[in-house]
Design a protein that fits this description.
The protein is an alpha/beta fold and 112 residues long. It has a single domain, classed as Hypothetical Protein Ychn, Chain: A (3-Layer(aba) Sandwich). The chain contains four helices and five strands; from the N terminus they run βαβαβαβαβ. α3 links the parallel β3 and β4.
Length: 112
Amino acid sequence: MGKNIIFCTGDKLGSGEEELGKVLMHNFIFSIAEKEPPPDIVIFMNRGVFLALEGSEISQSLEKLSASGTEILACGTCLDYYGLKEKPLLAKISNMTTITDLLAKAKQVVTI
């Protein structure tokens, strides 16, 4: 059976004001960390990888998700691009092949 995936492609939610978008992203991730059942996987890509860093504004929510069994993944190419691969992460480094396989086999994908 497929998995429920949150596919996070940015560090803010929506395309309006940047500060509002960051608040909305924080609130969204906090909310999914409080829900039962949690998503099976959260994938961070592009600027979303900044959220997977230890100490990010959503780090407590990611730790809660991880403790509840959610797999947290970050795009290795994106981490390389932004010079973040050596920074402490709350995510496992993944690659495009794995990410596309997971998305293709998913029961549900919510892209934010």
